[in-house]
Amino acid sequence: MPFLEHLEELRARLVRALLALIIGVGVGIWATGQYKLVDVFQAPIIPMLNGRHLVVQSPTELVMITLEIGFITGLVLASPVLIWQLWAFMSPALYEREKKAIVPALFAGMILFLTGSILSFIFLVPSALRVLLGFTPGTFDMLITFDKYFDFVLQVVLAMGLSAELPLLIIMLAVLGVVTPAMLNKFRRYAIVLCFLAGAILSPGTDIFSCLMMTAPLLVLYEVGFLGAVLAHRKRLKRQ
What we know:
Helices cover 79% and strands 0% of the residues.
């Protein structure tokens, strides 16, 4: 295609993606009020507040909370359309072998991200809160704002959702022949250091527990990716 036609197609794809995002956010804001998603987000910490609730510091914060949760919900709802528009624009530039590898990876990546996010919200967030709020019990009066709590939950959920993509990334590189199990095995010592570094960056706090909470899953996911790369490499050699 000529360059101007590429720009025209890109504009059309962006318009469709933007419309999908606007519709998704609208549905997300409606669902936030209809299904009381604010209460769902508060569920992990409410049992630990001894009958109290999270605090808001201004009337406008109530509106911002609804908009933030609605935007995130809408982004999740619109993500299949956004991924499809990205794929439709990029696919003509890929070889058939790359298409066969990337198409399943797109859907698998979305499922892994959602799975990692949901599981972290159900299991990791409550466990982290119990440990973090369990230090020196009865010494301080807790006054936790919803804004700070929401930032904590969002950082943990997004970090674990992105971390869940690590095995898929490693397996994809192995399928495309970029890496081999021997290379991954040799790189393991550096991967451990990088996992600790990523855990410190993704950690919602500066304490050692938060860092370890984010690092341990990364180490496990690297090993899962390594095993997947071994299987993919064997299959690739067999096919050759």
